[in-house]
Design a protein that fits this description.
isomerase, 5% strand, 5 helices, mainly alpha, PPIase_dom_sf, OMP_Chaperone_SurA
């Protein structure tokens, strides 16, 4: 599916959510390609916006409680975002340390995943047969 098709599909899904035909959670379980959040109905849990991709974060910050975004394109693909609720961030030292730890772990995971993908591509053997 190319970008235009993905965007059109998300616009259709967003219209179904807005009309009440389906809920955001039902749409996520049915259409989401994110295995981490699809089973939870798209719920990403409590998180500070700055942990997300900039395009995702910016769209999230424009939403009001209970509102669903239109299609949002980020470096990870296309998204629909629903803001269920918001709360004040704990700015204590322990919370800041925890946040820094999570950010470093996410960065390290991304680096390791990219390295693993490069290794897999480098070690793959493709044999082209011609008739």
């Amino acid at each position: 599916m190319n970008d235009a098709q993905a965007q059109a599909k998300l616009e259709q899904i967003a219209a179904e959510i807005k009309s009440g035909k389906i809920t955001f959670a039902q749409a996520a379980k049915t259409y989401s390609e994110d295995p981490g959040s699809a089973n939870q109905g798209g719920d990403l849990g409590w998180a500070t916006p700055d942990i997300f991709d900039p395009a995702f974060r910016d769209a999230l910050m424009r939403l009001n409680k209970g509102q669903t975004s239109g299609p949002v394109h980020s470096s990870f693909g296309w998204h629909l975002i629903e803001l269920l609720d918001s709360r004040q961030v704990d700015r204590t030292d322990a919370a800041q340390k925890d946040r820094a730890y999570r950010m470093l772990m996410n960065r390290k995971f991304s680096e390791e995943a990219a390295t693993w993908m490069q290794e897999q591509r480098a070690s793959a053997y493709v044999k082209i047969l011609s008739n």
